[in-house]
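Anyone up for a design puzzle?
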C-alpha cells in the first residue's frame, strides 16, 4: 500500500504515520526527518537545506525530489510506504507520478489554523530520538526531558511563533493545491483531526479500510 499523508505542518501527520507504520508494517518516510538528520550530520544536502528550514520556507523541489527518489528505491519501501511531508508542491507530486509510483490513497488531515499555531508553538522535540511532545497536550513525564532517551527537549527553530505563520502561509499557497490534484485522481480522503490522537487514528484506519 502506497500512501501519502497531507495536511498543514502540525496537523499530526508524523504521529499518524507512525500508527499506520505499526499496523500495516510499512515504513513511514518523512522528508522533514531526513533533512533534519542530514543537517545534524552536516552533509552537503543538510547545509543546502538549512536556511530554508530555519526560515520556514520550502527546500527546493529538486533537492527533495532527489531525496525521495533515493529513499523509495530502498528495499524496505518495495512493499509499500507512507509519505509524510512529501509531496508539498504540485511539481513534487508530478515528479512522483513520473517515477512510475502508483499512490493508493492520500489522507488529508484537516486542522484549523489557530489550532495549528498553538500546537506548533508548544511543540518540543528530542533531537536524539526524534520523539515529539507538547507543553500542554503531550507532556513528558519529567519537564524538558525525553521519556524515551532522557535527552533534553528543545523547541525547533521553525516552531517559533514568528516562523509558524510563515509556514502556514507556505502551506496554503503551495501545498494545499495538492488536495485538488489528488481529488481529480480520486485518491483523496479527508479526515478531520480530533482533539485526541487516538480518535484521529481511528478515523485514519477507517479511511484506509474503505
Ligand atoms: P512540519 O510538517 O512539522 O512542518 P516537516 O518536518 O515535515 O515539518 O518539515 C520541516 C521543514 O523541512 C519544512 O518547513 C521545509 O523547509 C522542509 N521540507 C520538508 N519536506 C519538504 C518538502 N517535501 N519540500 C520542501 N521542503 C520540505
Ligand atoms: Zn529522545
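Challenge accepted. My sequence:
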Amino acid at each position: 500500500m502506497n500512501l501519502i499523508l497531507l495536511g498543514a505542518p502540525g496537523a499530526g501527520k508524523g504521529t499518524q504515520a507512525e500508527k499506520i507504520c505499526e499496523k500495516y508494517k510499512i515504513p513511514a518516510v518523512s522528508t522533514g526527518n531526513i533533512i533534519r538528520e542530514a543537517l545534524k550530520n552536516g552533509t552537503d544536502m543538510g547545509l543546502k537545506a538549512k536556511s530554508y528550514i530555519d526560515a520556514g520556507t520550502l527546500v527546493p523541489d529538486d533537492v527533495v525530489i532527489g531525496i525521495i527518489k533515493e529513499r523509495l528505491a530502498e528495499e524496505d519501501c518495495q512493499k509499500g510506504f507512507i509519505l509524510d511531508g512529501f509531496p508539498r508542491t504540485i511539481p513534487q507530486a508530478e515528479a512522483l507520478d513520473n517515477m512510475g509510483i502508483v499512490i493508493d490513497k492520500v489522507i488529508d488531515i484537516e486542522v484549523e489554523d489557530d489550532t495549528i499555531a498553538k500546537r506548533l508553538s508548544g511543540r518540543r522535540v528530542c533531537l536524539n530520538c526524534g520523539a515529539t511532545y507538547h507543553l500542554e497536550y503531550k507532556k513528558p513525564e519529567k519537564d524538558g526531558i525525553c521519556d524515551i532517551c532522557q535527552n533534553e527537549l528543545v523547541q525547533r527553530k521553525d516552531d517559533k511563533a514568528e516562523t509558524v505563520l510563515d509556514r502556514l502561509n507556505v502551506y496554503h499557497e503551495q501545498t494545499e493545491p495538492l488536495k485538488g490534484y489528488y481529488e481529480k485522481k480520486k485518491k483523496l480522503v479527508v479526515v478531520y483531526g480530533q482533539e485526541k490522537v487516538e480518535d484521529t487514528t481511528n478515523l485514519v484506519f477507517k479511511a484506509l479500510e474503505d
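A detail worth pointing out: The first strand starts at residue 2 and ends at 7.
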